Amino acid sequence: MIDRSSSDDKIRAADIRSRTDMIFSSSPRTAVVNLFDHKHEARALVVFRHPVDRLISKFYYLQIAKWEKSYSPEWNDYTLLEWATNVNIDNNHAIKRLAGKRHMGRFKDLTDDDLARAKYTIREYFIVGLLGDIKESAERFNVVMGFNDNTAKRYSWCMDSHFGNFTRKVNSNSHPNVDKDGEAWQILAAQNTYDIELYEYAVMLFGEQKERIEQYGRDMQMAQEQ
User: Fold this and answer.
1) I want to staple 72 with a disulfide (CB 3.0 to 4.6 A). Which of 20, 48, 62, 165 is the partner?
2) How far apart are CA 219 and CA 180, in angstroms?
3) What is the dihedral of CA 134, 140, 144, 150, to 10 degrees?
4) Environment class of residue 102 by beta-carbon count within 10 Å: exposed (0-12), middle (13-18) or buried (19+)?
5) Does pTM top 0.85 for this prediction?
6) How crowded is the C-beta side of 141, counted as CA atoms within 13 Å?
7) 137-175: string of b/e by CB count within 10 Å (b at 16+)?
8) What angle do CA 169, 171, 56 make, to 5 degrees?
9) Does residue 21 surpass a pLDDT of 60?
10) How far, in Å, CA of 97 to CA of 128, rounded?
């Protein structure tokens, strides 16, 4: 397992392909271009979160997360509205990553064509998960990766430890609820129109993929029982 979350790292494709079962990357375009071809195939999994929820969580989390490189204690001096209006520049994050629109350390402007390409990419290549339905998402990922009680000894224990009734959330941060009709939410939404449209498209795909993945799981189970 390798975490390629830093877009500055040069991916050594041949080396990684020969020794890795799973790769995490916040730069999917870079990973796909450098790592995979018709001789080196993989399953692509993605978890989407509503863009405004992501930014609100980021605002509160980085005020206290001393262990993060991007720890920002100075944000304690701002209200969410002030931060959204005067500080935040992390907008349309998902589209930019999928489009690979970074130049000299800064993101380029986005177009409707970038949105169309991003939609095509997740539709054609990704099993879609949603943070708001993370247990169902994890179960789908397990199906397509072939993880179950027959193939993984600790499968049930692992699922229960993460999604059981008494599971303690790790690396999470409680924060005040934000009114979706409030000014701060609306400003963040206006700044992230491309990502919101992509998120809504991902929600639609999440629904569409359900039956296909369930049928795949039934087929795999029958094959294992034969």
Assistant:
1) 62
2) 42
3) 100
4) middle
5) no
6) 18
7) bbbbbbbbeebbeeeeeeeeeebeeeeeeeeeeeeeeee
8) 100
9) yes
10) 16
